[in-house]
Amino acid sequence: MRGKIVKVGYFREQGLEVFLDKLKAQGWLELFTNIPLGCSQPDLAEFYANVTVSEGLLTSTVNEVLIEVDARALGVILGVPAMGFDL
Question: Is pTM, for the whole model, over 0.85?
Fold first, then answer.
């Protein structure tokens, strides 16, 4: 799966610039438009199938590997601001 989740041109055509502006202001636009970023679709599906969030900690397993991160660590991993992420 590539990072091309948000197609900027499409959102502009639909008059949804406010959405793009909010992503940009929060520092998230690059995450959703950076084409070289990518991940394995089966691994991502397994991650979401197993994910739980409790007391500010996100927990999941992928290929029998336990993954535990809080909002701060997730922000670092994704390269995006995480302030207020856990509120």
Answer: no
